[in-house]
């Protein structure tokens, strides 16, 4: 039904363009609010911010292929400007109208002013962006006009989409399991079973919802879906990841079956609706720390040509761009104008597109002032934290930036959750067998109290992960000692050198044998640690079936089978997929929602009666050369008890099992066993009657003693 509605709306947009050509277009003074375009009776209001512009011209184009405008309107400052806002009402145009601006003003790069009237600029509030067949990033860099090769903004009327009364799931963080996903890479591989014309789209995600449901996923975290510039990459590559936003409102049209910016909006909404219908939330990975315009050698698409110093951090002496993002420029996020735009964008994605939360890329950038200095009370971050429209959303910070500001555990706010990079590093190091890791590993199992307890945060402040889009996949983490990024064209200089990985004797893939057995067991060890630790778990796309990038730990420009999810691995690694599915079930079966959702991590840890053990009960070995740890935890609601043994030592160790007076221990997980004996559903876990337990080298065992209540 919605496919038909979307087609009708697409046809209507084309009809509107024809009618506009045949009808008399007229103008009125217009109004400053709201910014961007707004549909009004008889036409469209346009509003744009530019403090230092001396002339603003609005161009209306017939369609995305037009190389010259059909109508142009130079805005009269007396009629069409109030304060720093330029505005105009144009009658007899509507949904689907293509447009752009040319803006003149001072060209003083050393003072941060880069007005260039020869360039056609996008509306910063565009909700749809159209790339013409002639689009050229280079033409936006070179001097001279680029009207015949520019991007264009498109007027959008959101009325008419049918949400079918489907409500957002609104899972608590207690019951959340996040799956980080690249929309294109999820279904673009030929093995996906998706029709070729549909692969890599929002629509194709809908077809794979049963896979996500079966795995127990409650939220997908989508890598950037805001319109990005695929040409922001080395000359013979394309930007695959999408961390190169052109603006903050428009949906990336390449993820639409029709590759159309208007159809992409409806297709995205349909995907969100169907994920919600399946009980799965949608979290967007948003990039507000930099844009696709790069540094002084980059293109002029929008912000540079409107009010450069408002939107970017600039050196006050030279006018050069601050680069705390590592991507050429840094957004001046705490400037009042950009701060309002970011909040407006978040409101738009929540109220109009129905998303459930956001992961903020390099969020610590957003804590910097106009001079690049970290702020104690950054206005933007507190505004997001306390915003009533966003109060039901999940807000997740990547609490560091590319210039060394690391705020894991010290990020501001009451509601913010954090990607816990220390969880990733300490779990990797422990299972690799590094010295001096046991104490830190113990803390990661318990929600990282060394990081979060002193701020009285909840147990869910920590978003735990082993792998994410940047860095090795889980398979490659246990298969490669070194990164192998030559395909990126940067002589293997790109990508992190600190991976805490190990190949266990041979670099690269192994079909079978002892090395492959050990690698597979290590994958299970880290996944079990992830799902059983306090905090909110996030699994990266394909780690459940050992997706490989063949050692590339920075595949940002690899839009090919290096990055795509190979669905044939669902069968070849079905045992690991089963393992993850049962981990999810074990975690989801725990009755926690009424217990620890609003408790501090300190309070939770006091209630679960933690006891630490070594090979003998109550005798943990905290020394630097220790590689094993055991603990028992008690659930205050069910009165069940867990006994968890983690042996990262390379040889087997015999553990004496703590006494359980009123019920028997049952073997829930043993990562050293082959499937299906490596993990059991809780109700089917076999009884274990011995007093000791032989734990194989580099393996994990979890036992449960069910209450007799």
What does this protein look like?
By secondary structure, the chain is of the alpha/beta class. Helix content is 24%, strand content 18%. It is built from 18 helices and 28 strands. The chain has an eight-stranded parallel beta barrel with strand order 13-14-15-16-17-18-19-20. Strands 21-22-23-28-25-26 form a six-stranded antiparallel β-sheet, covered by helices on one side. Strands 1, 2, 3, 6 and 7 form a five-stranded antiparallel β-sheet that branches. Helix 1 runs antiparallel to helix 7 and helix 11 packs across helix 12 (438-445). Residues 11-20 have low confidence and may be disordered.
Could you give a short description of this structure?
With 709 residues, the chain is α/β, with parallel strands linked by helices. 24% of the residues lie in helices and 18% in strands.
